Amino acid sequence: MTDISIEPLRPIDRRITSWMAGHGLTVLRIALGLVFLWFGALKFIPGLSPAEDLAGRTIDVLTRGAIQPAVSLPVLAIWETAIGVGLLVGNWMRAVLLLLFVQMLGTATPLILFPNETWTQFPIAPTLEGQYIIKNVVLVAAAIVLGATVRGGGLVAEPIVRTAGEAESKPQ
To answer: Can you give the pTM of this predicted structure?
Structure first.
């Protein structure tokens, strides 16, 4: 077996990694924004969103009937599209991410409120609706990554290499 050196690939690897570090957060923000805009927009048209019925019933139960689906679904549609637009524009990220995290808490509640509809066997076999909800873990993780940058942080392609005796700088 021949030992193939990866050394000739290092410049290509560096360019690709550098591009990902330079553009990854923007791509993540836009992708997340498109998902929220799209799923929110679907809720404006009755019968178009597969999550419509479950979302309406969840809000009805959480508010003990105070907010009926006829009111809650348009509000949810506005909420989700506002998150989507906020992510796409990239302004007011703290507020947008707060709206996202609050919305995600509500989105997870059907797993508890409606176990017969979200699980075929609790807690290992979700129904299609349950899978639709559980995938939100990825959306939350993406939002956490974006949230880590609201104070100006970012991704780097190359780690900072310190020599022995060099002081580590602490963020202010």
So the answer is: 0.86
